[in-house]
């Protein structure tokens, strides 16, 4: 049947996309087994919106994070960037499917544009965090607020992609392929804001 053919085609493209995003993981340093660092990540992630995703996404970098709030924050930003990039790869691959409807390719293109903006915002936030750690007093506070705003801007773009799919409930299959990843990135970004908010002032 044509329908099941399309589903299996979509699934194999999704599989290729996730396989390539795994092999591309360019963040931080190799996995370690530092028990106290893992504990530090667990306790820190406890303040976030989604502790489970927070721990899952950061614990591979425990040996590089150690117990440094600053390294925790930069790793969270780097992990967020890597997640945005793999979502962009996924959407690029889905756009290559033959026989997409006008609405389907429009949704994918719109989300792809949003993700470019999200990537830009998050990259900006990394510079603002760098500046923040070099400043004191009111300057520190200003860069702190700017960084949180930029990460929030990145998160907004992922909400918007989700929203656009919500307006098109008939796009069932594509939605099932795109939205879990988009929601995941939203949570990862939201966790990153929480970590910046709670730990930017901590020393170490
Ligand atoms: C984050 O990524 C940047 C650019 O690749 C790198 O210079 C930096 O060391 C990374 N930071 C952490 C904590 O992994
Ligand atoms: C890893 O950490 C666990 C404790 O969480 C410890 O039991 C285990 O021996 C460690 N493994 C290595 C290879 O260090
Ligand atoms: C997370 O917070 C809850 C409630 O404050 C607490 O009961 C729990 O022990 C904390 N978990 C960790 C790993 O810190
Ligand atoms: C969500 O992100 C985490 C951390 O990067 C990853 O392990 C998990 O597979 C992702 N889940 C989805 C549905 O994309």
UniProtKB/TrEMBL annotation:
Full protein name: Pectinesterase inhibitor domain-containing protein
Keywords of this entry: Signal
NCBIfam families documented for this protein: PME_inhib (TIGR01614)
Signal sequence annotation: 1-19
CDD domains: PMEI-like_3
One term of GO molecular function: enzyme inhibitor activity
Any Pfam family: PMEI
Lineage of the organism: Eukaryota, Viridiplantae, Streptophyta, Embryophyta, Tracheophyta
SUPFAM superfamilies recorded: Plant invertase/pectin methylesterase inhibitor (SSF101148)
Family: Belongs to the PMEI family.
InterPro entries hit by this protein: Invertase/methylesterase_inhib (IPR035513), Pectinesterase_inhib_dom (IPR006501), PME_Inhibitor (IPR051955)
Domain Pectinesterase inhibitor: 36-195
């Amino acid at each position: 049947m044509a329908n099941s053919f399309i589903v299996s085609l979509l699934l194999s493209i999704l599989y290729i996309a996730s396989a390539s995003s795994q092999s591309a993981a360019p963040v931080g340093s190799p996995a370690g087994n530092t028990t106290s660092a893992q504990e530090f990540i667990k306790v820190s992630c406890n303040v976030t919106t989604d502790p489970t995703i927070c721990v899952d996404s950061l614990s591979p970098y425990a040996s590089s994070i150690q117990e440094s709030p600053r390294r925790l924050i930069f790793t969270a930003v780097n992990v967020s960037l890597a997640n945005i990039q793999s979502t962009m790869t996924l959407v690029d691959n889905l756009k290559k499917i033959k026989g997409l409807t006008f609405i389907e390719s429009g949704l994918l293109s719109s989300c792809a544009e949003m993700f470019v903006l999200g990537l830009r915002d998050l990259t900006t936030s990394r510079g603002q965090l760098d500046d923040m750690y070099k400043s004191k007093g009111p300057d520190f506070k200003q860069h702190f607020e700017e960084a949180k705003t930029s990460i929030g801007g990145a998160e907004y773009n992922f909400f918007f992609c989700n929203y656009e799919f919500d307006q098109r409930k008939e796009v069932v299959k594509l939605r099932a392929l795109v939205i879990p990843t988009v929601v995941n990135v939203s949570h990862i970004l939201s966790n990153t804001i929480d970590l910046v908010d709670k730990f930017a002032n901590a020393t170490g």
